[in-house]
Amino acid sequence: MIMATPIEERGYARPEVLVSTDWVEQHLKDPNVRIIESNEDTLLYASGHVPGAVHVDWTSDLNDQIRRDYITREGFEALMSRIGATPDTTIVFYGDKNNWWACYAYWVFQLFGHANARIMDGGRLKWEKEGRQMVRDAPSHAATDYPQPRRDDTRIRAFRDQVMKHVDSKGKLIDVRSPAEYTGERLHMPEYPNEGALRGGHIPRAANVPWARAINPDDGTFKTADELKAIYEGEAKLQSGDDVVVYCRIGERSSHTWFVLTNLLGYKQVRNYDGSWTEWGNAVRAPIEKGPEK
Fold it and tell me: In the annotation, is 248 catalytic?
């Protein structure tokens, strides 16, 4: 297996947001570190996980169970208390599918301002490939007091009406779905169910950069800053000062691209449109385009 370039040598704007599997193994018993596994496959955690890692289920722990929205500040406070975290706790996320859902959980935590958060580079795939210890027992932690944080949707989240204005003002958009979804050939990813979109296509003027292009397929680590710039700036024509909106189906894949643009490339104005295609593809009079990029 090709060895990944050390994180601090990849030229990232904020290399501190990534930690290596070595770092995690060295901090397994650190009381000031809480490791969180968050997967697409919510049953995967029980089959084996990093020792001491707690499970955060994106379906039940991060999403409101009635509205299409995220948990309230009271819900976030209860979640952090349950996993034994305080505002000073370093949270390290990892998961399956190249940290796809780990980045989603990271993004939701940023809505509540928990900035002391990291991603384990390579995720579950790298940890397993390196033959590191996996356990099945779920840890328990003493409940903590976590002050109710005000959820701030203004900085990193975009809503449909804001995206409409963004399109009208010729703002930059990145569609991170597969090419077949982008062109309208498919309404969903291969091997996945249709999550409710009635029309196929993409938001006008959006560039298509599938989210997983940011990853080295051998070990799930992130590509270097130069490699990422070649993709997002060389091909998609983004500039670091652009106001960018990213989207996918329900905001999960696009949270991964949000993480890359914001933390690894240092973009200051990136918002995740989590309504994404399941909302836009059903919205009355929402403009769409079909076919490949022009």
Answer: yes
